[in-house]
Amino acid sequence: MNDTESSRLAPLRFLERVQERDLARTRRWIADEERREAERRVGEARRPPAPEWLIERGLDRNNTVAVHTGECWDPGKRAKPATRAQAIEALRHQVPACSKCRPDTALGIEV
User: Fold this and answer.
1) Which residues contact 53 (CB under 8 A, 6 or more apart)?
2) Which residues of the chain have pLDDT under 50?
3) pTM for this structure?
Protein backbone atom coordinates (compact mmCIF):
# COMPACT_ATOMS: atom_id res chain seq x y z
CA MET A 1 0.00 0.00 0.00
CA ASN A 2 1.07 3.50 -0.57
CA ASP A 3 0.89 6.25 2.02
CA THR A 4 -2.21 7.96 0.63
CA GLU A 5 -4.33 4.81 1.01
CA SER A 6 -3.22 4.17 4.60
CA SER A 7 -3.54 7.81 5.49
CA ARG A 8 -7.19 7.83 4.27
CA LEU A 9 -8.04 4.52 5.95
CA ALA A 10 -7.17 5.64 9.50
CA PRO A 11 -9.56 8.63 9.54
CA LEU A 12 -12.31 6.49 8.02
CA ARG A 13 -11.86 3.83 10.72
CA PHE A 14 -11.92 6.60 13.33
CA LEU A 15 -15.13 7.98 11.82
CA GLU A 16 -16.66 4.52 11.88
CA ARG A 17 -15.90 4.12 15.62
CA VAL A 18 -17.36 7.54 16.39
CA GLN A 19 -20.54 6.76 14.45
CA GLU A 20 -20.90 3.36 16.16
CA ARG A 21 -20.67 5.07 19.56
CA ASP A 22 -23.21 7.68 18.46
CA LEU A 23 -25.56 4.96 17.22
CA ALA A 24 -25.19 3.02 20.49
CA ARG A 25 -25.96 6.19 22.47
CA THR A 26 -29.01 6.92 20.32
CA ARG A 27 -30.27 3.37 20.84
CA ARG A 28 -29.85 3.78 24.62
CA TRP A 29 -31.85 7.01 24.46
CA ILE A 30 -34.59 5.23 22.51
CA ALA A 31 -34.66 2.34 25.00
CA ASP A 32 -34.80 4.79 27.94
CA GLU A 33 -37.66 6.71 26.33
CA GLU A 34 -39.58 3.49 25.60
CA ARG A 35 -39.14 2.44 29.24
CA ARG A 36 -40.38 5.83 30.51
CA GLU A 37 -43.37 5.69 28.18
CA ALA A 38 -44.24 2.17 29.37
CA GLU A 39 -43.95 3.30 33.01
CA ARG A 40 -46.19 6.30 32.30
CA ARG A 41 -48.87 4.06 30.76
CA VAL A 42 -48.72 1.66 33.73
CA GLY A 43 -48.98 4.61 36.14
CA GLU A 44 -52.03 5.98 34.33
CA ALA A 45 -53.69 2.56 34.36
CA ARG A 46 -53.10 2.20 38.12
CA ARG A 47 -54.17 5.73 39.04
CA PRO A 48 -57.38 5.69 41.08
CA PRO A 49 -60.32 7.59 39.63
CA ALA A 50 -60.72 11.20 40.67
CA PRO A 51 -63.24 11.73 43.48
CA GLU A 52 -66.59 13.24 42.58
CA TRP A 53 -66.66 15.54 45.61
CA LEU A 54 -64.09 17.15 47.89
CA ILE A 55 -64.40 18.64 51.35
CA GLU A 56 -61.74 21.17 52.29
CA ARG A 57 -60.71 21.33 55.92
CA GLY A 58 -59.22 24.25 57.80
CA LEU A 59 -55.91 24.36 59.62
CA ASP A 60 -57.31 22.74 62.76
CA ARG A 61 -58.90 19.90 60.71
CA ASN A 62 -62.14 20.22 62.71
CA ASN A 63 -63.20 23.25 60.73
CA THR A 64 -64.74 22.56 57.31
CA VAL A 65 -63.89 25.37 54.91
CA ALA A 66 -65.65 24.49 51.64
CA VAL A 67 -67.23 21.82 49.47
CA HIS A 68 -65.87 21.30 45.93
CA THR A 69 -66.65 19.14 42.92
CA GLY A 70 -63.95 16.61 42.05
CA GLU A 71 -63.04 18.60 38.94
CA CYS A 72 -62.52 21.91 40.77
CA TRP A 73 -59.32 23.65 39.79
CA ASP A 74 -58.95 25.40 43.16
CA PRO A 75 -59.71 22.94 45.97
CA GLY A 76 -56.84 23.87 48.30
CA LYS A 77 -54.21 21.62 49.80
CA ARG A 78 -56.36 20.23 52.60
CA ALA A 79 -59.23 18.93 50.44
CA LYS A 80 -60.12 15.27 50.95
CA PRO A 81 -62.36 12.99 48.87
CA ALA A 82 -65.98 12.79 49.97
CA THR A 83 -69.09 10.90 49.00
CA ARG A 84 -72.14 12.57 47.51
CA ALA A 85 -73.97 12.15 50.83
CA GLN A 86 -71.10 13.78 52.76
CA ALA A 87 -71.04 16.73 50.34
CA ILE A 88 -74.81 17.22 50.66
CA GLU A 89 -74.63 16.95 54.45
CA ALA A 90 -71.84 19.53 54.62
CA LEU A 91 -73.76 21.97 52.43
CA ARG A 92 -76.87 21.53 54.56
CA HIS A 93 -74.80 22.33 57.65
CA GLN A 94 -73.88 25.73 56.20
CA VAL A 95 -70.45 24.77 54.86
CA PRO A 96 -69.81 27.19 51.99
CA ALA A 97 -69.90 25.90 48.43
CA CYS A 98 -66.87 26.73 46.32
CA SER A 99 -67.65 29.80 44.24
CA LYS A 100 -65.63 28.48 41.30
CA CYS A 101 -67.01 24.95 40.78
CA ARG A 102 -70.46 25.45 42.41
CA PRO A 103 -71.04 21.98 43.95
CA ASP A 104 -74.39 23.12 45.29
CA THR A 105 -75.63 23.62 41.72
CA ALA A 106 -74.18 20.28 40.63
CA LEU A 107 -75.94 18.58 43.55
CA GLY A 108 -79.18 20.44 42.94
CA ILE A 109 -79.18 22.14 46.34
CA GLU A 110 -80.14 25.75 46.94
CA VAL A 111 -78.01 27.37 49.58
Assistant:
1) 67, 68, 69, 70, 81, 82, 83, 84, 86, 87, 103
2) 1
3) 0.60
